[in-house]
Design goal:
heterodimer; A: 335 residues; alpha+beta; five-stranded antiparallel sheet; 5 helices; 26% helix; rod-shaped; B: 1010 residues; nine-stranded antiparallel sheet; 33 helices; elongated
Chain lengths: 335, 1010
């Protein structure tokens, strides 16, 4: 009893809690050395990933026709310029016929021109007749080249088939036709997506401001992918009343994923401690710092709490802080 | 009458034999108990209020129940405790109310109370057990390491419990340890990912795990019972429960959750043995059951149960109340035997005749055997108090026989020329009237004890009743058996030894001397009486000395927010500290509560320390010293307050005032904050008072809570009602059982748990998924950590805060006086606030108040009897002089021995008044006879003193010698009787001295004037 009475004033004044090592051990009071780190203050909101629409391509056949051959299928990875499909186009066949006719015509005109030129040189025919043949030839030539140009304007062509190639590196997100499907300008064959590019729609509190945001991340299963604020919607989501912020990022993630967007504001110097280390004593936030005889009550400031950890400011490097069993120290300190 | 007895002496002899045999039979069959049942008639009503804070529980549940119960007939007091999640009301009935009547009254009113409570809360009556109902503790211990605590609990629940529960007298079994359950750990992120709401998980589990009956179906094989069995039988089954189906795919429970075998969440208690957690159980006895018999039945049942358990699992009995009973009774029985022996030897010495001595020695066991028979017929039990009564009275019980036999012997020796037959009749008839009168006086003295109430009544009424029964039994022995035995057995002899003649001679010389200083002696006696009254004020006061139980309880009070794991560590420290002493046999603790319905949380630990017998103690001499050592060593544990008591003492303290400590200061008032503030102040005052140990203010506030407050407008918008939200919380957080899993014959609960109980994770628990949008818990409710109240106590509808304290090295009476004075001086109470003192102090006060009436009443009764006998105010008053004479010795011996003025010492005073007056009666009656014969006053006085010296000395010696073994005993149970013995021995010593010296002088002085 006398023993206790002696200690009461001591405890009240210095706020030192006496604990010997063995008791510490049995009570499960463990300490952690303070290691100061730069830590960012962060807030996180739910977010949904979508494909970056600026990296989406749809593949159309420039001419209506019938799909002759498909070289890839839904889900295939394609490289830029990789052959995707062959489309037979009746118009191309017609064009080819025309080209062939124009070719014949050109050949005829050329031969006619050669004969007329010879005749003219031998002054068998007048210049006018030669000239007219020349005109005829030029006409056939330009007609032919116009047709050729026309053909080449439909891209790569093999015979009567159009060859469709991938304009980007990415994935065949959707395959909308099968062999034999008819295609035209209304109906795309494939949807390609550059899957490294994503958008994330973050749904934040309406009052949340991005002004001081220093960095943004998308967090998924412990990994973080840095993102950029792309756009802040001028209107709130009509269903939830939340503010919508679009982020763009490159990450090996998939659209449709529901995850969290982390907005980071500035950095602080502090130490991450298990949340248990921080206790409230008489309304003040404190931690318990080990000294020779036991623990000192040490007021601190808590900055951020997450995942059972708390970022604490006000400690010095190398101090030893109680991180478990602190409830006993707290109860003693509150006496 | 006597003639009739003597003529039919053979029949009397046969009757004697029959009495002996039936007496022995009764003694063997007499139910045995430690104490008379001290439990007040009380009924406990508890109501689980999951989700309610202490304040809400108080207002919504406790208050209505209190008001309804307060109206029941014969209700004396209503105490209540409101905790987060539990309302606990105890209704106290007037003493003597039939418990079953009380329970039926309460159960009738329960439905009335039910109507006043919010829907979903149903009050229940607590087990019908007494305060000392924790009769046996046992643990299931696995020696192989193959069984987990959950397995042991399952064994207990399904194998041991059914056996124990059917033992007659068992009301309930508190079972500690984790209960096995299948835990579905849901990962909120995954739910969110698959767009599944938490409610869907609950529904799926509920829907897929049923059993349905399909009636009967007629088949060629006969009529078959149709059963649809959907019950889960393994964890694999659970994983396959589909949660969400689309045309293309299905999401199974296994996709979003893990299933583990584990313990039911939210456990609020544990049981440790020798520092390690075990599966512990406490058997609660039904009110009115005999403890000893119950325990022997229980031990038998436990042996049976052991056979059912797998190899390696042992049932260990840790503590049972019978051990104390056996020790206490053997202490008293030993004292009884020694007393009989001592008294017989003393009487043999006085009478100097072996035959007479043998008869006297025989009379005591005969008296006891008759008493046992009567006790058994009355349905009373042999306990510390009834047996103690016999030990106290042992000397008195010989008296009647001494008088009868001595008279017969005297007449025989005087060799009167009549036949032996008529001489015996004459001698018996001669003493019959005064003897009956004398015995009546002593019996009457004990009557006021029947006015005692409460515990003191329950303890001392049986004691008084036993003494009265035994006194009349002794008369019976003296008048029925002794004449017959004397007729055959006694022979004439010398009347007196030479030593005694010498003694008488010197006494008469002394008396003669005294006559010359009569006024000096008379005033000296008066002075000594005044001095003794002064001494009385200096003697400490207490209710009753604590019974040494051979066990210590350490109570640990922890911060209200402590976890079970942390509490277990504290229990371990306490146990390990105690186990360092070789005197400790074993230690075990119960932490928090076993099941629902008890008002303790994990912040409270009771550690039992069972000690070896006191003879083997080396490191400490007394229990107090041991406690002091432990207290000092435990000082090193920060943040925990410790308090010391003993198992039964604690229970009795608790029964009396609802507090498990010696002194309780209750601060009544309306504002919880305010009364707690005053309590803090009072605690400081109490702690600073000398003698206070284990001062503790119960933490009523400071319990942290996570408040989940629904956002009404959001809920409304999505057509979610609050009940859905509440269901979600009660299931994921509250550990509500959603389905059952069947393993063989056993059913285990299936509970859901959020995989991490982290506030952030909890916030993202998906609640309601509509087309394309999802809501999390944090969208529909605010989650706030706030501080709330932990425990709200009320007495008869008033809130109070509690400061408790134990005492060391000081008496309760003066301690309370000092504390009271200090509080009056230092604490300013707002209007409507007041402080009252409870605990043992309350009893002491009440008992003292009763004694203030009982003692004068006893004296008054003696006086009336005397007056009726003598028809002389003077003679009656003169005999009454023995009361102050006895007081002097009683007070002096109490003061010197250091015992406090307590209920037993007061009972001692009452007893010694009777015995002392008897001395006076013997003397005064004889003087009166001689005066009537015409003798001169002084001569008559001398003659009477000379003739009556021997009977007075025999009575005094016998009465006090009978108590000596009790006084010297160190056994368990003796401490309660010691103050009584001290007072009686001291009182008899002075009163005998004064009867022999002062009373003759006083008689002379006051009669001379006539």
């Amino acid at each position: 009893m006398i023993f206790l009475l002696l200690f009461i004033p001591l405890l009240l004044q210095a706020q030192v809690i006496k604990v010997d090592t063995k008791t510490m051990e049995t009570l499960g009071i463990r300490v952690q050395k303070v290691k100061l780190t730069e830590e960012a203050k962060e807030v996180s909101f739910p977010a949904v990933l979508e494909w970056d629409k600026s990296a989406t391509y749809e593949v159309y056949s420039p001419l209506e026709g019938i799909v002759k051959k498909l070289y890839v299928k839904e889900g295939s990875f394609v490289k830029r310029g990789q052959l995707l499909a062959e489309v037979f186009s009746p118009r191309l066949a017609e064009l080819n016929a025309q080209i062939r006719m124009a070719q014949v015509k050109l050949k005829t005109a050329e031969e006619n021109l050669k004969r007329e030129e010879l005749l003219y040189k031998e002054e068998v025919i007048p210049y006018a007749r030669y000239f007219s043949a020349k005109v005829e030839y030029e006409k056939a030539k330009s007609e032919y080249s116009a047709l050729l140009k026309n053909l080449s304007s439909f891209g790569e062509v093999r015979g009567n088939n159009l060859l469709l190639r991938s304009p980007i590196e990415g994935i065949v997100l959707e395959q909308k036709v099968a062999s034999g499907s008819s295609v035209d300008l209304q109906k795309p064959l494939f949807k390609l997506q550059d899957t490294s590019k994503l958008w994330a729609y973050a749904y934040t509190d309406p009052t949340f401001s991005v002004k001081d945001v220093k960095a943004v991340f998308i967090e998924f299963e412990g990994n973080r992918y840095s993102a950029k604020i792309d756009w802040v919607s001028p209107q709130l989501d009509p269903q939830t009343g939340k503010q919508v912020i679009r982020l763009s990022l490159r990450a090996p993630l998939k659209a449709g994923l529901k995850t969290r967007a982390v907005f980071s504001f500035g950095k602080y110097r502090g130490v991450w401690l298990p949340a248990q280390a921080l206790q409230k004593v008489k309304g003040r936030e404190v931690v318990f710092v080990k000294d020779k005889e036991g623990f000192k009550v040490y007021p601190v400031k808590a900055l951020i709490e997450k995942d059972g950890l708390v970022l604490v400011e006000g400690l010095k490097e190398g101090q030893e802080v109680a991180v478990s069993g602190t409830i006993f120290l707290k109860a003693q300190a509150e006496r | 009458m006597i003639r009739f007895i003597l003529t039919n002496r053979l029949i009397v002899l046969l009757f004697l034999l029959a009495t002996v045999i039936y007496g022995i039979y009764s003694f063997l069959k007499l139910p045995v108990d430690t104490f008379p049942e001290p439990t007040p008639v009380q009924v406990i009503i508890y109501t689980e209020t999951p989700g309610l804070s202490a304040e809400e529980t108080e207002v919504l549940v406790t208050k209505p129940i209190e008001s309804v119960m307060g109206g029941i007939k014969n209700v004396e007091k209503v105490l209540s405790i409101s905790l987060p999640g539990l309302s606990y009301v105890s209704v106290f009935f007037k003493d003597g109310t039939d418990i079953y009547f009380a329970r039926s009254q309460v159960s009738q009113k329960l439905s009335e109370a039910q109507a006043l409570l919010p829907a979903g809360f149903s009050p229940r009556m607590g087990p019908n057990t007494s305060g000392l109902g924790n009769v046996l503790f046992y643990a299931l211990v696995d020696t192989t390491g193959r069984y987990s605590l959950e397995d042991l609990k399952t064994l207990q629940r399904w194998k041991v419990r059914p056996l124990i529960k059917t033992v007659d007298g068992v009301e309930e079994i508190s079972e500690w340890g984790p209960e096995k359950a299948y835990i579905v750990k849901v990962e909120p992120e995954k739910l969110l990912q698959y767009g599944i709401s938490a409610q869907e998980v609950i529904k799926a589990l509920e829907n897929y795990g049923g059993v349905a009956g399909g009636g009967f179906i007629k088949t060629p094989e006969g009529d078959l019972v149709v059963r649809a069995l959907g019950r889960y039988t393994s964890a694999q089954d659970l994983l396959k429960v589909p949660l969400k189906k689309t045309e293309k795919s299905v999401v199974l429970l296994g996709d979003v959750a893990k299933v583990e075998e584990g313990e039911m969440p939210n456990r609020r208690g544990a049981f440790t043995l020798m520092g390690q957690e075990v599966q512990g159980n406490i058997v609660l006895k039904r009110v009115g059951t005999n403890t000893m018999e119950l325990i022997s039945r229980l031990k038998e049942a436990l042996r049976e149960a052991q056979k059912l358990l797998p190899e390696g699992v042992q049932i260990q009995i840790l503590y049972d109340q019978s051990y104390l009973t056996q020790k206490a009774l053997s202490t008293v029985e030993k004292a009884l035997l020694e007393g009989i022996l001592l008294v017989s030897i003393a009487i043999a010495l006085y009478l100097w005749n072996v035959r007479v001595a043998l008869l006297v020695a025989l009379s005591v066991p005969l008296t006891l055997l008759i008493t046992f028979t009567v006790l058994k017929e009355l349905g009373m039990s042999a306990n510390l108090m009834t047996m103690g009564g016999l030990a106290i009275g042992i000397g008195l019980f010989a008296d009647a026989t001494v008088v009868v036999v001595e008279n017969i012997y005297r007449h025989l020796s005087e060799k009167l020329s009549v036949s032996k037959f008529s001489m015996v009749i004459n001698s018996v008839q001669e003493v019959a009237r005064p003897l009956i009168f004398a015995v009546s006086i002593i019996a009457v003295v004990f009557l006021p004890i029947f006015t005692f109430e409460s515990v003191e009544g329950k303890y001392y009424k049986p004691l008084a009743l036993t003494i009265i029964i035994a006194l009349f039994s002794s008369l019976f022995v003296a008048f029925v058996f002794m004449p017959v035995l004397s007729f055959w057995f006694l022979k004439e002899g010398k009347e007196e030894t030479r030593i005694f003649a010498l003694l008488r001679k010197s006494y008469l010389a002394l008396l003669e001397r005294a006559f010359s200083f009569k006024y000096v002696i008379l005033s000296l006696s008066l002075l000594s009486f005044v001095f003794s009254l002064f001494l009385l004020t200096r003697i400490g006061k207490e209710f009753a000395p604590p019974l040494e139980e051979g066990a210590v309880i350490v109570k640990s009070f922890l911060d209200p927010n402590v976890s079970l794991e942390e509490a277990k560590r504290v229990a371990q420290i306490v146990e390990e500290t105690a186990l360092k002493y070789p005197e400790v046999i074993r230690t075990f603790s119960n932490i928090g509560r076993a099941e629902v319905g008890e008002p303790e949380d994990v912040s409270y630990i009771e550690t039992f320390i069972i000690l070896k017998p006191a003879e083997e103690w080396k490191s400490f001499k007394s229990r107090q010293e041991f406690e002091e050592k432990l207290r000092e060593e435990l000082e090193k544990v920060p943040g925990v307050e410790f308090s010391f008591t003993q198992p039964i003492q604690m229970r009795i303290d608790e029964l009396l005032s609802g507090v498990k400590a010696t002194l309780a200061v209750k601060i009544f008032g309306d504002d919880l904050g305010k009364i707690n503030e005053i309590a803090q102040h009072v605690e400081k005052i109490v702690a600073s008072t000398k003698g206070a140990v284990d001062v503790e203010t119960e933490a009523q506030s400071g319990k942290l809570q996570l408040r989940i407050i629904p956002k009404k407008e959001v809920l409304e918008k999505y057509h979610i009602d609050t009940s859905q939200l509440l269901e979600l919380i009660s299931t994921y957080m509250g550990g509500r059982e959603v389905a059952q899993l069947q393993k063989g014959e056993l059913l285990f609960p299936i509970v859901l748990e959020a995989s991490q109980r982290d506030i952030e994770k909890l916030k993202s628990m998906p609640l309601y998924i509509s087309e394309g949008s999802s809501l999390t818990l944090s969208d529909v409710a605010d989650l706030v950590v706030a501080e709330g109240f932990n425990k709200i106590r009320r007495e008869n509808g008033m809130r109070y805060a509690l400061v408790q304290s134990n005492l060391s090295g000081r008496d309760l009476g003066s301690f309370v006086e000092e504390v009271k004075r200090k509080i009056e001086r230092e604490v300013k109470l707002p209007e409507g606030y007041y402080i009252s003192f409870g605990g043992q102090f309350e009893n002491q006060q009440r008992a003292m108040k009763k004694l203030m009436i009982a003692v004068p009443l006893a004296i008054g009764l003696i006086f009336i009897l005397l007056y009726l006998n003598y028809r002389s105010l003077k003679d009656a008053l003169l005999v009454m002089l023995n009361v102050p004479f006895a007081t002097v010795g009683g007070v002096l011996s109490l003061y010197i021995s250091g015992y406090n003025l307590s209920v037993p010492s007061a009972v001692g005073f009452i007893a010694v008044f009777g015995i002392a007056t008897l001395n006076g009666v013997v003397l005064v009656s004889y003087i009166r006879n001689l005066l009537e014969d015409g003798l001169q006053l002084q001569k008559a006085i001398f003659e009477a003193c000379s003739k009556r010296l021997r009977p007075i000395l025999i009575t005094a010696t016998a009465s006090s010698l009978g108590l000596v073994p009790m006084l010297l005993s160190k056994g368990i149970g003796s401490e309660v009787q010691k103050p009584l013995a001290v007072v009686v021995i001291g009182g008899i010593a002075t009163s005998t001295l004064l009867t022999l010296l002062v009373l003759p002088l006083a008689y002379y002085v006051f009669s001379k004037k006539d």
